[in-house]
Amino acid sequence: MKIDIDFFSDTNTDPSRGMREAMANAKVGNEVAGEDPTVNELVSEVCNLLGKEAGIFLPSGTMCNVIAYKAQVEVPGDYIVLDETSHSLVVQSGLIAAQANANSLPIKGERGIFKLEQIEEYITRPHLRNIPRTRIVSIEQTTNFGGGAIWPIEYIQDIAKLCKANNVYMHLDGARLFNACAHTNIKPKEYVKLFDSAFVDFSKGLGAPMGAVLVGSKEFIEKAWYYKFQIGGGMHQAGIIAAGCLYGLKNNIYLLQEDHDKAKYLSNALDKIAKIDIDKSLYETNIIYFGLKDTKLPLDNFIDVLLRYGIRMLRIKDKIRAITHRDISYDQINFTIKVINETLKLE
């Protein structure tokens, strides 16, 4: 079935003509030997933007997470504290246990965000020989399953202060960090300076087909290189990929607010449909969740009806997720709303 309007994810963007041209014309070299000029330029740009001294180019954000965890877990079984809905815990194939040899300590936050008092006991408790130590606090900005919620920087500052005092690492899953920055006008380096490691992803709103950069200290990145090789992340002539990331960084980062505006437009329109259950005030960035009410139409059937019109959304438990991005137009949103209205009127 042909998908014309894809709300499934902002990873489902097509590289633009300009991005494809940049990739086709990229200067390349041996990435694993540090000889690819386009990769080197991308890493340098990201380090400057995030305020970190070193970085490493990787195919995906998932690889960034697993390498950051592996490089900072000191003893097998160490705890990684993170929200119970975190992407790396829920949908990254058990990487914490299988790859990082660590235990997860899931915290029940609100929309993917927890507070200092919820984790303080795990950070400050005395070390006992039969209880794992907490080594990492991992934060996702923005939260995917939290509907694009933005961690208040004050929360992060408080947690970072506690972690630093207790020799606990801070890691930022910044797959959509630039979306948070677009909404808050807080510079990326203001967030990232609070973390020992962080990554940004280029395959979300920036529209690249793949690629992410993990940053931190020189010592940390040297460890990251070891684990990059270990899990098969070494690349050759990777400048072709990095050129797409650079194009997105230079041209599309300033367009992210448009994605947020589209999500707001969609949520406002959904809120006017009687059988749609949505709290439109919750959604600040490009991810929204909604449900159905006063209807016997199952969610899966609703999703199938949309698909027949070439519209794709994703069911997550008792909600439907829609993510706006550069390849969705306002006309397509209007068409989607029309289809939803007609579907629920007929039900």
TrEMBL record:
Keywords linked to the UniProt accession: Lyase, Pyridoxal phosphate
Modified residue annotations for N6-(pyridoxal phosphate)lysine: K204
Signal peptide residues on this chain, from the entry's feature table: none
Entry annotated with the keyword Lyase: yes
InterPro entries assigned to the protein according to its UniProt record, in alphabetical order: ArAA_b-elim_lyase/Thr_aldolase, Low_specificity_L-TA-like, PyrdxlP-dep_Trfase, PyrdxlP-dep_Trfase_major, PyrdxlP-dep_Trfase_small
MF annotations from Gene Ontology: L-allo-threonine aldolase activity
GO (cellular component) term, any one: cytosol
Pfam families, alphabetized: Beta_elim_lyase (PF01212)
Keyword Lyase found: yes
Cofactor annotation: pyridoxal 5'-phosphate
GO biological process terms, semicolon-separated: glycine biosynthetic process; L-threonine catabolic process
Description of how the protein assembles with itself and partners: Homotetramer.
PANTHER family named among the record's database cross-references: L-THREONINE ALDOLASE, L-THREONINE ALDOLASE-RELATED
Record-linked NCBIfam families: GntG_guanitoxin (NF041359)
Protein name (record): Threonine aldolase
Source organism (scientific name): Candidatus Phycorickettsia trachydisci
